[in-house]
Amino acid sequence: MDGMVTIERHILDQEASSPSASGVFSGLLYEIALAGKIIQREVSRAGLIELLGKTGDVNIQGETVAKLDEYSNEVMVRTLSMGNRVCLMGSEEVDDVIIPENGAKQGKYVVCFDPLDGSSNIDANVSIGTIFSIFRRKSELGTLPTREDALQPGSELIGAGYIVYGSSTMLVYTTKGGTVDGFTYDPSVGEFLRSHQNIRTPETGRIYSVNEGNVQYWERGIQQFLVGVKAEDKARKRPYAHRYIGSLVADFHRNLLYGGIFLYPRNVRGGKKNNGKLRLLYEAMPLAMVAVNAGGGASTGRMPILDVQPTELHQRVPLIIGSRNDVDEAVRFIAAEEEE
Ligand code: AHM
Ligand code: MG
């Protein structure tokens, strides 16, 4: 930790160095951090609630137990609706876009989020996370927002990041053209403190992360890339280690720090996921912005994730993300197979 810089201080410092900053965006980031604190409190009690809340679904405080992902969604929507900064939200938990009553006309920003990704892992105490994308609104200020406000490509992102609820809780975020910075939550002071300044991901990794049980369904380029990362090649430090938690934020975060590649390919021979599994707007795109700003890469296999124009709020996209040289190599394998 560098001299106990809170996330608030960090955001204010960044704002001070950008003459056009209005403070509204900073307020929005701070709201996301606040939502993260509230969600982490509940996540850290999940086992206890399970233990004590079984009879009649009532927790120790006498409140009805909501599913944690629904609860996290509620927290995000309420927190982001507070300051009239947001005109429209998109959440993995909600079919249509969410328009907050107060900010609809005057809110300058659009936020898409997965409030609790990897929630099927909760019962096993495995790390889970919140992922968010921030855009400027497209529709005119003073009017009602439209669905198109959410359907913006990654090149329009002005901020993105995630919160991982792991052995400690950590918030990682980046802004357009900015650095990637990480903040670890200190429960004793109730603050996110800057712990990782200007994160850079290794250009070449040593880990590959993929649900390899599905390898039979994938295109040949991916299959051959995977054969390559497992083949012994001392000069290239191969074989890579295989690590797969099955919780996107946790798998991504580990690879960001240590170097590695995460893949969730599309199925081309059977299986249902012909666009992969992960969602463009609030899973692939925000992590792509973090990866790219940390010196890494992110691709669908055919184009950069940040160039994909969304057509639907919940659209899925194949995802290859992580260390730049590894992502580039996977993309080359796919292209080579297509030429044949
Ligand atoms: P979810 O949004 O329903 O939680 O699903 C997303 C999760 C990701 O966290 C993870 O990368 C992926 O599903 C794992 O999928 P699989 O079990 O098919 O490997
Ligand atoms: Mg998810």
Structural notes for this entry:
- It is a single chain.
- The chain has 340 residues and is α+β, with helices and mostly antiparallel strands.
- It folds into two domains: 7-196, Fructose-1,6-Bisphosphatase, Chain A, domain 1 (2-Layer Sandwich), CATH 3.30.540; 207-339, D-Maltodextrin-Binding Protein, domain 2, CATH 3.40.190.
- The protein is 32% helix and 20% strand.
- It has nine helices and twelve strands.
- Strands 1-2-3-4-5-6-7 form a seven-stranded mixed β-sheet, sandwiched between helices. It has a five-stranded mixed β-sheet with strand order 9-8-10-12-11, sandwiched between helices.
- Strand 4 (157-165) and strand 5 (169-175) form a beta hairpin.
- The radius of gyration is 20 Å and the shape is globular.
- The termini are far apart.
- The relative contact order is 0.13.
- Mean pLDDT is 91; it is low at 52-56.
- Magnesium ion is lined by residues 92, 114, 117, 283.
Key structural traits:
alpha+beta; D-Maltodextrin-Binding Protein, domain 2; 7-stranded mixed β-sheet; globular; binds 2,5-anhydro-1,6-di-O-phosphono-D-mannitol; binds magnesium ion
Question: Quick summary of this structure?
Answer:
The protein has 340 residues and is an alpha+beta fold. The protein has helices spanning 7-16, 24-44, 46-52, 68-82, 103-106, 220-230, 248-258, 280-293, 324-339, and strands at residues 86-91, 109-117, 128-136, 157-165, 169-175, 180-186, 191-196, 207-209, 241-242, 261-264, 297-299, 319-322. The chain folds into two domains: 7-196, 2-Layer Sandwich (Fructose-1,6-Bisphosphatase, Chain A, domain 1); 207-339, D-Maltodextrin-Binding Protein, domain 2 (3-Layer(aba) Sandwich), CATH 3.40.190.
